[in-house]
Amino acid sequence: MSTPALKIYNTLTRKKEDFRPIDPANVRMYVCGPTVYDYAHIGNARPLIVFDVLFRLLRHLYGPEHVIYVRNITDVDDKINARAFERGISIRELTEETNKVFQADVCALGCLEPTVQPRATEHIAQMIAIIERLIASGHAYAADGHVLFDVPSMPSYGRLSRRSLDEMLAGARVDVAPYKRGDMDFVLWKPSKENEPGWDSPWGRGRPGWHIECSAMSWAHLGETFDIHGGGIDLVFPHHENEIAQSCCAFGRELMANYWMHNGFLQVEGEKMSKSLGNFVTIHELLHTEKFGGRSWSGEVLRLAMLRTHYRQPIDWTVKALEEAETKLTYWMTVMDFSVAPLGSDGRIADQLLRSDEVPSTYMDALSDDLNTPLAMQILDRAFSEPRTDRVLSIMLGLSGIDLNAFRASRHARDQAFFEKHGDIVDRLISARNAARASKNWAESDRIRDELAAMGIALKDKKDGATSREVKR
Ligand SMILES: [Zn+2]
Questions:
Q1: CA end-to-end distance (rounded Å), the chain
Q2: What is the whole-number distance in angstroms between the Cα of residue 212 and the centre of ligand 1?
Q3: How far is the CA of 241 from the centre of ligand 1 (A)?
Q4: How far, in Å, is the centroid of ligand 1 from the Cα of 74?
Q5: Where in the sequence of the chain do the CATH 3.40.50.620 domains occur?
Q6: Per-residue confidence (pLDDT) for residue 462, from 0 to 100
Q7: How far is the centre of ligand 1, averaged over its atoms, from the C-alpha of 35 (Å)?
């Protein structure tokens, strides 16, 4: 079976390029993961979902055992120290608790587990090794317990973001410190006070800067140069620029990763998401509270809503978009034959797909064209109204990571919860309505139907006189 060539928009060249892995038997991707000090917000969900679809596609194209996906956990950071202090808990407690919620969130969004989820605190030795190489090759210097990267020592610095040194100076929040030689120089290592987490190093007890963490973890798990590096567009400068500077200078390489992919911004109901505007919403809140749109949403709804916009476009996160995604999923659920063995979120999808010629090639082409998921979702939607086998639908859903079984289960759980809370009153109203109908009091019967409708309950009168109830929201 011929597979379409995967095309990827490369931020480094600002072009859509054919993807050619360094080693097709060992395709390697790194995506910057969370700093575990607070719950992940809905903007953080975007790269999780986007790169999960890419991971699934790569597994299909190269075989599940030939793809390594690394997404790190940043568990040493000054934001973590500050938050743990604020809450009066240990750093360990905070990072463990936050990571647990994060893992549950990504699981609910239907994301496969990455091959490796390295923790920064477990890669301090590699960070120190990279810093020592940088000092030895004249790209870094130690001063006052700090180690700084010497930006002017790298003529190609700024290549990814394409900013001039002047623009970068204006754009970065440069703190002037006496130990810095140049304004742009950034911290690789800094000293820790007694109450701060720290590790012994050739420069005294201290801790790493944020950027060096990703250079060390990608090196440890993917090597000096690898295929794809991903993240949100807000990471291009300075984070990714600095990762490139560290890795390329430490290993004497032209490139850290061959393809750099960045997802676009997310805004909420037309406005930038911020705590001060009060429109800040976490994945956890969307899934488990009534904060957004007065109700909770299933992970499949969040995922489909995300995939209906191309990953490089800005996305407007709205209640309306979530409602539309839910309507789509509800329709698909009614068409789907659930007796067909579901293809779960594991390697079986890719294995089955390799043997399946029935999947519309248009669908594969859309996904392979720089992850054109909006087009793929249209093709998937069409497939539900055409005569297709449920196995094919199941494979198509699996490739996008949409789990209709999970959606159906979440709907069922929501209905259960509703009736547990309101079941008595609903039953009482239904019997009152039945009594009204028996005495041909149609006005009263209609009034009760409306009252139930206002509660979100739709009634269906059956031929045998019985009435079924259904939760509509
Ligand atoms: Zn990173």
A1: 44
A2: 8
A3: 10
A4: 9
A5: 7-263
A6: 77
A7: 10
